[in-house]
Amino acid sequence: MAVQPDSGGKDDVKTQFVTREGTYRLMTLSEYSRPNRVGYTSGSGSSHVRVSLVSLPPGPGSGAPGSDGQGSDDRICFNHGKELYVYVYRGVKKAADLSKPVDKKMYKGTNPTCHDFNTVTMTAENVSLVIGFSTGQIQLIDPIKKELSKLYNEERLIDKTRVTCIKWVPGSSNLFISAHASGQLYVYNEELTCGTTAPHYQLFKQGDGYSIHTCRTKSTRNPLYRWVIGAEGSCINEFAFSPCGTNLAVVSQDGFLRVFHYDTMELIGRARSYFGGFLCVCWSPDGKYVVVGGEDDLVTVWSFSELRVVARGQGHRSWVSVVAFDPYVVSFTDPDNEEVIEEDKQKSESVQCYRLGSVSQDTQLCLWDLTEDVLKPPVRARASAHLSPNSQTFSPNGIPGTKLPTKGTKSNKIGHKHAELSGQTNATGEPSGAKLATKTKSNNISTLNISVGKAKEENSGSLGVNSLTQRLAGFSFGDRRSEHRRNFSLTSKPAEQKTSASNTVALRGKSAGAASNDTYDPLKLIGTPLCPRFDECPVLEPLVCKKIAHERLTALLFRAEYLVTACADGCVNTWARPARTHNGEPRAHRRFERIDLVD
Amino acid sequence: MSICQDLGLNFQQRMGANISQLERDIGSEQFPPNEHYFGLVNFGNTCYSNSVLQALYFCRPFREKVLEYKAKNKRTKETLLTCLADLFYSIATQKKKVGSIAPKKFIARLRKEKEEFDNYMQQDAHEFLNFLINHINEIILAERNQNTLKVQKNASENVTCNGTVPQNTEPTWVHEIFQGTLTSETRCLNCETVSSKDEHFFDLQVDVGQNTSITHCLKCFSDTETLCNDNKFKCDHCSSYQEAQKRMRVKKLPLILALHLKRFKYMEQYNRHIKVSHRVVFPLELRLFNTSDDAVNPDRLYDLVAVVVHCGSGPNRGHYISIVKSHGFWLLFDDDMVDKIDASAIEDFYGLTSDIQKSSETGYILFYQSRDASC
């Protein structure tokens, strides 16, 4: 009963999964791939299939090339091997028409690895798509107009290594950033040339574990800046701008997350993986949390305000390749709920529960609920169904002024208002802020999938009975942890607290000029807020964990009506969200009526 | 024998160009001082031995202890350990930085020591590793007991009269390097009594799942198992066979953690072993999730230092090579050939995501070395 099933490849690939919102279904006809799919042979190595989606502003010319009179303003771009495709993306409304790509490219001697649409300059008739390649070059095209085609780093004078991530600077019409396997990140202006010689750099700024350089030339040229980040030659795997565009989070193969203030180029904070490289990074929609995934098979949640790892999610069977918040499924504090208000009045508007998605090389999709009770230090022992009594003696994680709850008995139900942003999107296709959300009543949500550390149930005899607590807390043999480990506090031991505090100060101050190697030594960082010991940090379990592909998953995007996943064999799949309910009543199914035909 | 010598000659001639290539790839300035990269000549299906020996050579604590043994022990009786020490010493004291060596004496000794290896058939690299580690350990223990016996005889003839030699339980350097402790906890489902038993290991043998990580395979290794039906647990408390739940977790983490991926599965329907080529990723850095609550150093951080790779379709065919990390870069040892490889090429040895292909090059034994190792 407690034995886990064989994790072999025989598990069925799921075409639907259920959360509390309802059932998500795979839209089998909305599968995008190369037009004539021939028998795919699983090649090793670079299967970096990525997906970019863009919603073009509706234009007068529905006859514009590419839009094809199909009535969809969405375009999807994905790469597979040497190829890159742009299609009209018709979401869940209509089946994919693979016979007429908007654009397709086949490259020789190099593979496209990543791409990004510019949402600032786009119109109904044109859009700039910047593409990075496995050999370091960068191309700028307009897949609709097809007039534009520029190359950057063409002679590989700037960087010879694979472009691992490429993105337009938020709000900018002409600046984009490329990250490379060499551990460097370059800021380009698409209007400038790259020169005919290798750039000569001069130091512009230096900080703890990074330096920023500019080109030493008379006329400005590309790259505008070169950021050298982390241990020498350690691949930058991904970067992400905060929703406000102010901060830049970068994850590297050296196992570090680094968060910079983009304009001042100051290092704001760091986190260290439990082990191995960090592979992917994303921001919560409100910019309060950064989530990273990596080679430790974990999803790690880092608090921007507290500069510490606040939780880890364990559920994947292999490396986590993409993490993404679902901005459309957010639960808010219930203002009607007295308890919450009395607890924290200012925050009655703030998000109470975030929905996070992750996909992995294990071919599984995991969905996670990040609830306030885990993210915030255990000020009160809510959702403490699985905490041992001594967990109430937690130190409140160094947050000054917080008091331990006086109310001892607390139900583990949290009054959540379950709200979904009702499809309101701005031009970029992103939700225009959580506050716009229409609040919908929904059931109380108990955060049963959370247990803290190795806190054990008091009743050690419940082995194998309570499946929710079993995995972490469970299998309690009645063995007791040694005293110093049982009384775990999330702020770790005093000595370590001291060093980590001074680290933080150094990081927050100007650039910490005299950075000792210690600040990057994982043996010194273990047990600090940057990398808590495993049993000192809350461990989340996924809400949903489903095998949804035969191949490694490489992309995950959340949109108002659907989610998009892609895997290493070049298949891009669309999953329809559950039909919404409003006040408990099924809503008009207008938006989804065609689904039934497809399904 | 003459065939083998011919082969050896051929290889060495062929190597001429390659050797300088390796030095060129590394660069004379980058070439680490006092380091030698020497391939090992194949004596006819001895790649199982060559690949393991190279991996062990680049487990620095092991190499240093073997060389220390060589320095301390003036030629006594030839054992497999003296042959290994001579081989390591010979590699470490070569004038040239790169080249190839014929481990003739070692192979000859190995064939004398163990019948199973006394042929020209392909052997299982893990079986060989297991044999070698245990055998070396026994040699050390035997020599130590001999010494204590001598000391006792010389020093005092009237100390003990019970005649039994006090067993020296102090760990050998093989124990210190490779030995870890597993604690198996069994809970009787009848009386709820938990009994735990410790056992030592030199390596962990883990089942492999498709599209998983070694981390996950290790976690599965420690999954709770229910003992029932024919496999009930004899509970001392109940004095009878009862259903029980059992799990194994790591209590003492070894200095070098050797992980054997069980890639050869016996399939009844085929009546033979089939290679499981599942893709199992292994990170360059590792911590264990499956440690016991009383583990001494549960967050010990390991670095991948060597991988024995099996190439081919089955246990008795195919080829073994090894990839090792030395001074920050990765080298591939394919018998007498040595090449520098990019760290990104390691992913070629994770395995296959589909079963269409019969043959694969997959990580088979992983050597993780604790970062707090004193060297």
TrEMBL record, chain A:
<dbReference type="InterPro" id="IPR036322">
    <property type="entry name" value="WD40_repeat_dom_sf"/>
</dbReference>
<feature type="region of interest" description="Disordered">
    <location>
        <begin position="485"/>
        <end position="513"/>
    </location>
</feature>
<feature type="compositionally biased region" description="Polar residues">
    <location>
        <begin position="488"/>
        <end position="505"/>
    </location>
</feature>
<keyword id="KW-0853">WD repeat</keyword>
<dbReference type="InterPro" id="IPR015943">
    <property type="entry name" value="WD40/YVTN_repeat-like_dom_sf"/>
</dbReference>
<feature type="compositionally biased region" description="Polar residues">
    <location>
        <begin position="387"/>
        <end position="396"/>
    </location>
</feature>
<protein>
    <recommendedName>
        <fullName>WD repeat-containing protein 20</fullName>
    </recommendedName>
</protein>
<dbReference type="InterPro" id="IPR051362">
    <property type="entry name" value="WD_repeat_creC_regulators"/>
</dbReference>
<feature type="region of interest" description="Disordered">
    <location>
        <begin position="382"/>
        <end position="440"/>
    </location>
</feature>
<feature type="region of interest" description="Disordered">
    <location>
        <begin position="35"/>
        <end position="72"/>
    </location>
</feature>
<dbReference type="InterPro" id="IPR001680">
    <property type="entry name" value="WD40_rpt"/>
</dbReference>
<dbReference type="Pfam" id="PF00400">
    <property type="entry name" value="WD40"/>
</dbReference>
<keyword id="KW-0677">Repeat</keyword>
<feature type="compositionally biased region" description="Polar residues">
    <location>
        <begin position="39"/>
        <end position="49"/>
    </location>
</feature>
From TrEMBL, chain B:
<comment type="similarity">
    <text>Belongs to the peptidase C19 family.</text>
</comment>
<dbReference type="GO" id="GO:0005829">
    <property type="term" value="C:cytosol"/>
</dbReference>
<dbReference type="Pfam" id="PF00443">
    <property type="entry name" value="UCH"/>
</dbReference>
<feature type="domain" description="USP">
    <location>
        <begin position="38"/>
        <end position="371"/>
    </location>
</feature>
<protein>
    <recommendedName>
        <fullName>ubiquitinyl hydrolase 1</fullName>
        <ecNumber>3.4.19.12</ecNumber>
    </recommendedName>
</protein>
<dbReference type="InterPro" id="IPR028889">
    <property type="entry name" value="USP"/>
</dbReference>
<keyword id="KW-0645">Protease</keyword>
<dbReference type="GO" id="GO:0060255">
    <property type="term" value="P:regulation of macromolecule metabolic process"/>
</dbReference>
<dbReference type="InterPro" id="IPR050164">
    <property type="entry name" value="Peptidase_C19"/>
</dbReference>
<dbReference type="InterPro" id="IPR038765">
    <property type="entry name" value="Papain-like_cys_pep_sf"/>
</dbReference>
<dbReference type="GO" id="GO:0006508">
    <property type="term" value="P:proteolysis"/>
</dbReference>
<dbReference type="GO" id="GO:0004843">
    <property type="term" value="F:cysteine-type deubiquitinase activity"/>
</dbReference>
<dbReference type="InterPro" id="IPR018200">
    <property type="entry name" value="USP_CS"/>
</dbReference>
<dbReference type="GO" id="GO:0005634">
    <property type="term" value="C:nucleus"/>
</dbReference>
<dbReference type="InterPro" id="IPR001394">
    <property type="entry name" value="Peptidase_C19_UCH"/>
</dbReference>
<dbReference type="GO" id="GO:0016579">
    <property type="term" value="P:protein deubiquitination"/>
</dbReference>
<keyword id="KW-0378">Hydrolase</keyword>
